[in-house]
Amino acid sequence: MHDTRWEMEMRDYQHCIYRSLVTDDKLESFRVVVKETDLLVRAQRPLERETRDLVLKHRVPLERYAEDHPDFVESLTPLSDDHFAPPIVRTMIEASRKAGVGPMAAVAGAVAEYVGRDLLSYSKEVMIENGGDIFICTTFPLTVAIFAGPSPLSGKLGVRIDSPETPMAVCTSSGSVGHSISFGSSDAVVVISESAALADATATTIGNLVSKKEDVASAIRLAGDIQGVLGVVVILDDQMGVWGTVELVGLG
Q1: Which residues make Cβ contacts (< 8 Å) with residue 84, sequence separation at least 6?
Q2: pLDDT of residue 26
Q3: Using alpha carbons only, what angle is made at residue 102 by residues 183 and 165, rounded to the nearest 5 degrees?
């Protein structure tokens, strides 16, 4: 595929920053790249071949569907469900419908989750990061630091994820960092959900709403109305809003 929106929404940017933000030293780390999909994986042992096979398993039908359905790639608003679409496509459509955005807003989270859940057949501990969207399934707690670009709060706070809560997703969108499509100016929108696709799509929705500090409160309220969202953090400059099941920890 050659569509630039696909490339942007796969979020192949800022890896050197995002990929230092998960605090754990218990798992093996390795990188798997297939076209625009660029994953950092943590598992109990190196599983590069298995992970690459799983990326292809889900990416190939997604690519074929996108080629046959241009509206799936181009639309910035929700689409109707397609019962004949591949499972990952239907997940993206459902997540984007709940969040009120186009289905490609969920692509990075969906790929991370689908690959991550399949990878659990090879390792009971799995973390997959896809351009700031993280699928987590561990038996130990960890902290995901919040990178918020130019905000003075950037790198000062983290979201703690406890193992009994996983599988879990922590997805981030930003209007000031990277090249993903955003109509807002937020430095970071962090969304927690059991669905990485939903967290990804919701982060885009909330990020689109935040252009000034006064928007933070209303954006937080909207996040609370999206079924399946467990928590959200919104940062713009020195302003922060928090809703839901979010345990923030200070970072040294």
Answers
A1: none
A2: 79
A3: 95
Distance of CA 247 to CAs 18, 107, 157, 171, Å?
A: 19, 26, 10, 15
37 contacts 15 by C-beta, under 8 angstroms: no
CA distance 196 to 122: 20
Q: Which two tokens stand for residue 218?
A: 């209303």
| Cα dihedral 190→192→198→200 (10° resolution) | 30
Tens digits of residue pLDDT in 150-171: 999 988 999 999 877 789 999 9
pLDDT score at 1: 35
Q: Which residue has the higher pLDDT, 16 or 20?
A: 20
In order, the DSSP letters of 74-136 are H-SS-----TTS-HHHHHHHHHHHHHTS-GGGGHHHHHHHHHHHHHTTT-SSEEEEETTEEEE
Look over the chain and give the mean of its residue pLDDT values, rounded to a whole number.
Answer: 87
Instruction: Calculate the CA dihedral of residues 239, 168, 161, 17 and round it to 10 degrees.
Output: -60
Rounded-to-integer distance, Cα 31 and Cα 128, Å: 10
Six-digit token pair at 88? Answer: 């990952």
pLDDT score of 7 more than 50:
no
DSSP at 161: E
Closest C-alpha among 219, 172, 173, 171 to residue 194: 171
Domains with residue ranges and CATH for the chain: 4-250 (3.10.520.10)
In sequence order, what are the residues at sequence separation of 6 or more whose Cβ sits closer than 8 angstroms to the Cβ of residue 53?
none
**What are the residues facing 34 on neighbouring strands?**
37
The pLDDT of residue 184: 63
